[in-house]
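In the laboratory, one determines a bound structure by crystallizing the protein with its ligand and collecting diffraction data. In a computational setting the workflow is compressed into a single prediction: the sequence and the ligand go in, and a structural description comes out. We illustrate the idea with L-homoserine.
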Amino acid sequence: MQRYRLALIGFGNVGQGFTQILRDKGEQLARRFDVQYQIVAVSDLLKGSLYDPDGLDATALLEAIQNKGHIQNLPAPHQGWDALKTINQTNADAVIEISYTDLKTGEPALTHIRTALALGKHVVTTNKGPIALRYPELAALAREKGAEIGVEGTVMSGTPALRVGQELLGGTSISKVQGILNGTTNYILTQMENGASYQQALAQAQELGYAEADPTGDVEGHDAAGKVVILANLLMEAPLTMADVSCQGITQVSPADIAEAKAAGERWKLIGAVEQTGHGVEASVKPLRIPLSHPLASISGATNAITYTTDLLDEVTLVGPGAGRLETGYALLGDLLAIHRNSK
Ligand code: HSE
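The predicted complex, in structure-token form:
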């Protein structure tokens, strides 16, 4: 049985969802894959920090959050360590970076990831900021240090959009990737088509936990643009940055626009795309009116979808959740299992 010790940097929804998955699936993972994942440290600015080199109890962590909203009173030999001390001084083999995301600087997650990789620790993250801004540098550092970096949850949460593109379609040439990459805006557009106002629909998306802490990044298209950059870098070997994506969100789409599209048998969707063209790689996020017969038109609510255009298979489409606590938590497990497979 191979055992991995994990340090969680951040303990919000995603960290709690991941902890719940480990608690509930420990036996299955041991049986199927001969692997055991043990959380040894959690460091969260608001909820508290604990480190026990012999492992923390997942059930106790989740109960403390549920009952008290923090983990500060749980017994552990070390308490109150900040993120960097946790990364530097615990015995974790892998760092799970799930602190808040910042698409402008990538910090503080970028420093967390660099620090962990420099120590030769694996990193698994759902954090879009550092990956959209610095993936080539981080991947090179990981290679140099013999560590791995897993980023599946940065695009379409646990739906394996990156793994399908990188590994399963790795023998094809992907000339275009396009999709519905932001759950919040797709939810808002769907609800507006059903009669809700923009404000009502946004409030619901926030309540359901799809939206970012500051939903501006969702509705203005920046979240989807970050995902487009990640897709370009990972699937098309195109080193694009955020500045290369022409980006427009959904704030200008009015109820009248939506009604007009509906009457014409069409539907507004916020489409993120990256395409190899005659003039190089072009990337965009913009609202498009698409016919109902288009495969992406039927994707409703917070669901995401991605279509890969390839030389050998033409179009392949993957549909699945793009946000959510267990859904994003699962991305972390998927990456950890890939690291375990690669270690053999
Ligand atoms: N705010 C994002 C969305 C969450 O709505 O899709 C997942 O990245």
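The chain has two domains: 2-158+325-342, 162-321. Keep in mind that any predicted model is a hypothesis to be tested, not a measurement.
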